[in-house]
Specification:
The protein is α/β, with parallel strands linked by helices. The chain has 16 helices and 15 strands. The protein folds into two domains: 249 residues, TIM Barrel, CATH 3.20.20; 69 residues, Arc Repressor Mutant, subunit A, CATH 1.10.10. A hairpin with a 2-residue loop joins strand 14 and strand 15. The structure holds iron/sulfur cluster (SF4). The site of iron/sulfur cluster has 11 residues, from loops.
Length: 372
């Protein structure tokens, strides 16, 4: 399979309360960052096969001006080879862009937008520390369609303190009214070092208990599958598999990927490496002619096998038992016979047409399944 290219844009206008992705809120270093990024691209020239996905994430890529995005794509094409039908995604925050920007964005070759909607409820948006309002989310969606984007993904968050099932269902219904090609529905998680974690620690807020989180998960899956979406991974839904994120699937099946920018991770064969998180260290390393890599690890066959098991059981497709046995010299049906039978009896997994795959309930407990 072709590799994928990820570019991390490490800037946000403000930090959301729950987020631990690396970004800085001063935009002063955007030009220096882009120059460093273009140099970093040159460092990997010729090392990867033809890319068929490019994902520009962050941070907030929509803080870039349209000319900066054009230049970034031009430089990427100079340094790497892309297949003509590549999936080119950019993350956009509602409220950052206008109709002129979006029309120009389509002309750059970007063919997929992932919108950080998170919620259509102003109270929840404000709790999460998002800068946009319900109204701005709607107008960005409308402008994206009007600009001609026919592949839109929305990110949504559930399990926010104070949110009930009714409120979440309304958010899902509002999202569905725009007929998105893709939906990512994430449970709110408490990441260390975030303001959300501090509030939880002080006892100022309480997150929904496990039972309610499970109900949110099941309701989301039922509602979106009833609306014709495929629940193809724990948090991801597509209106047909042609709209499943080609880029993210590479992370789940060990397809090689190159990550550029601060904190980005890469994988090639059994080597995984990651860049420095600090933007300043990233820039200064590159200025000295050094790759901005913080560290690397070489995965053993056993580690790759375990990862393939964990990641495979997070997807609706599951794991092809013959391929798994051939690749890792490990027969799941023999080695894990007892636990597999228990999970089948419990309705968490099933085996059909040579695949072992999770049920809807199994997807809800994917983290436990991976411990088999
Ligand atoms: S959630 Fe997105 S916009 Fe908010 S701080 Fe994190 S990267 Fe920035």
């Amino acid at each position: 399979m072709n590799p994928g290219l990820y570019i991390h844009i490490p800037f946000c206008i403000s930090k959301c309360n729950y987020c631990n992705f690396y970004s800085v809120t001063s935009l002063d270093l955007i030009s220096d960052f882009l120059e460093s990024l273009f140099t970093e691209m040159g460092m990997y020239r010729g090392q990867f096969e033809v890319f068929d996905t490019l994902y520009i994430g962050g941070g907030t890529p929509s803080v870039l001006r349209i000319e900066q995005i054009e230049k970034l794509l031009e430089k990427a094409e100079e340094s790497f080879v892309f297949s003509p039908d590549s999936e080119i995604t950019i993350e956009v925050n509602p409220g950052d862009v206008n109709a002129t920007f979006l029309k120009a964005l389509l002309k750059t070759g970007v063919n997929r937008i992932n919108l950080g909607i998170q919620s259509f409820d102003n109270t929840i948006l404000s709790f999460l520390g998002r800068r946009h309002s319900h109204k701005e989310a709607i107008s960005t969606l409308e402008m994206s369609r009007d600009a001609g984007f026919d592949n839109l993904g929305f990110d949504l968050i559930y399990g926010v303190p104070g949110q009930d099932m009714n409120g979440w269902t309304q958010t899902l219904e509002q999202a569905l009214s725009f007929n998105p090609e893709h939906l990512s529905c994430y449970e709110l998680t408490v990441e260390p070092g975030t303001p959300l974690a501090a509030s939880c620690r002080k006892g100022n807020i309480t997150l929904p208990d496990e039972e309610l989180q499970y109900d949110f998960f099941i309701k989301t899956s039922e509602k979106l599958e009833d609306a014709g979406y495929i629940h193809y991974e724990v948090s991801n839904f597509a209106r047909g598999m042609t709209y499943a994120s080609g880029h993210n699937q590479k992370y789940w099946n060990h397809t090689p990927y190159l990550g550029l920018g601060p904190s980005a991770h890469s994988l090639l064969h059994n080597k995984r490496w990651w860049n420095h998180k600090s933007l300043r260290t990233y820039i200064s390393n590159i200025k000295k002619g050094k790759p901005p890599v913080e560290d690397a690890e070489y995965l053993t066959k056993d580690q790759l096998c375990l990862e393939a098991l964990c990641l495979g059981l997070r997807t609706k497709k599951g794991i092809n038992l013959c391929d798994f046995k051939r690749e890792y010299n490990y027969d799941l049906l023999i080695e894990k016979k007892e636990i597999i039978m228990k999970l089948i009896d419990g309705g968490l997994i099933d085996i059909k047409n040579g695949y072992i795959y999770p049920s809807r309930r199994g997807l809800a407990m994917a983290d436990s399944l991976s411990l088999i």
